Amino acid sequence: MFTARRVGIAAGVLMAVGGIAFAVDWSLSSGQVPRGVQVAGIDIGGQDRSQAQTRLETTLNPRAVQPLTVTIGDVRTTLVPHDAGLSLDWDETWDRIGGQPVNPFTRLRSFFGTRKVEPATVIGDAAMARQLNVLRAHDRQPVEGGIVFEQDRPVPVRPVPGRVLDVPAARTALAEHWADGSVLALPVTETPARVSAAAVDKALREIAQPAVRGPITFTGKGGDAVLEPALLAAALSFHPNDQGALAVSYNSDALVAVLEPQLKSTEVAPKDATFALSGSRASVVPAVVGETIKWDKTFEGLPALLVAPGDRAEAVVYEPAQPALPTADAEKLGVIQVIGSFTTGGFSGPSGVNIRTVARKVDGALVRPGDTFSLNDFTGTRGVEQGYVESGIINNGRPDVAVGGGISQFATTLYNAAYFAGLEDAGHTEHSYYISRYPAAREATVFDGAIDLKFRNNTPYGVYIETLAGGSELTVRMWSTKTVEVESITGDRTKPTEPKTVTLPKGKNCIASDGAPGFTTSDTRVIRAADTGREIYRHTRTVKYDPIPVVTCE
């Protein structure tokens, strides 16, 4: 009983002392920050609140405009918190700090511990979004496991995981820790490669190494092609499949580039049907069906062949190659007789070279029913590389020289052959002044890319063009089925104009000329049905020829 009374007295004394101590501590700490408080690493516990506020503002406000170092995986970069939309919310920060604790045990613990308080942050959403988007530039895509070739040696590519910025978590980390004054590690998410190192080793062992252990022979009809390991390796590639393994594929164009020259002689090129011309009759020369390599079928067995043991060979697969003009189609075109013909002459030297060159190009041209023939489109560029030479032309109303000069004589001959065949004029241009060897108002000139000669096959039959170019004479014939007769009526020459005199310096660019008067004339084309003689078309074309200037060279 005595002992219990002593314990009670001691407890009372302790409580009294504790109460007195609490009262004294409360009185002394009034207006102070609670003991043990640290804000962003700054110890302000026990300080006067105004003094603590000053210290915090002096230290933390500058951090908003100073570069903050952040790490994203192994990347180290900086950002300015203020530019990222971050600023301090002092009211909320002091709410987090709080006042003096009432609980005596809490006050007692404050003597021995530290309470860390993160400053409250205001976030500008737009600026933060922009900053996070900038940081995404440091994302790293995974390096997929794979296999590449160095010549004919397969080399494994080991997978490396990638990483991307965890945007929501990075936003939270920046908001909570930007003011701490230390390097801030931003959260990232690892993105694993689809193909593991084990899958790479398996593909290396089971596919890549066997694929290039030796050559592959492609056996054709009458000849073989050998694909050496280094050339095969250049056409192979590995890529991930849906099962996380490596699959092999091949570049068929690269394989064809290697094999086609070796197997070209085993193919048979198709030949279009054409026409044999004898006297006044034409007959069909049958087409030839070719045989060409079907590369996609030839390569179908290649994946299995890559890993096959022993000597490796694959049979080449061929397919028929149909001609563009089969025999039956040619026979339906009705190319049996001459329906229009015209001859010009009087050329020689460089002009003759150009006329014979273009004649060879056009000889054998076929114009199907409804199609339009364009001389410029058919021949393409007429330059030195195509065999044309420098010769006389008409330039700005006076004689000059240029590559391809003389082609207008071919154009005039072709135009007249089409004219008398009754074909539709689809566009032509006369010379600027009259050339005596051509029929007035029934001639044509051409110029690369600018002036063209066109006519349309307005018949139900095909039109086959024959050209005959000798030393100084050119004939163009149109072969088809004759349905019309054509008459040309030349009009009188009227409105004569006298030439002017042009004086030029002597030299290559000056070609003397006696000149000639200009005039206006016309040509009327009358087309009648060949079987009845009934007139079905009449058209008059009026042409004005400029006077040929008198050119003197001084």
Summarize the structure.
The protein has 554 residues and is α+β, with helices and mostly antiparallel strands. 29% of the residues lie in helices and 32% in strands. It starts with a helix and ends with a strand.
Notable characteristics:
4-stranded antiparallel sheet, 15 helices, 554 residues, 29% helix, alpha+beta
Describe the structure.
With 554 residues, the chain is an alpha+beta fold. 29% of the residues lie in helices and 32% in strands. The strands form 14 sheets. The chain has a four-stranded antiparallel beta sheet. Strand 13 (216-220) and strand 14 (223-227) form a beta hairpin. Helix 8 packs antiparallel against helix 9 (252-263). It starts with a helix and ends with a strand.
The average pLDDT value, as a whole number, equals 90
Terminal residue distance: 154 Å
Shape summary: elongated
In percent terms, what proportion of residues is strand?
A: 25-35%
Helical content band:
25-40%
Secondary structure layout plus pairing:
Layout: H1 2-29, E1 37-39, E2 42-43, H2 49-60, E3 68-72, E4 75-79, E5 86-88, H3 90-97, H4 104-110, E6 115-117, E7 121-123, H5 125-135, E8 146-150, E9 153-157, E10 162-165, H6 167-177, E11 184-185, E12 188-191, H7 197-211, E13 216-220, E14 223-227, H8 229-235, E15 236-240, E16 246-250, H9 252-263, E17 274-278, E18 281-285, E19 290-293, H10 295-298, H11 302-306, E20 312-315, E21 318-321, H12 327-332, E22 337-345, H13 349-362, E23 366-367, E24 372-374, H14 375-379, E25 390-395, E26 398-403, H15 407-420, E27 424-427, E28 454-456, E29 463-469, E30 473-480, E31 484-490, E32 494-497, E33 501-504, E34 518-529, E35 535-545, E36 550-553
Helix pairs in contact: 8-9
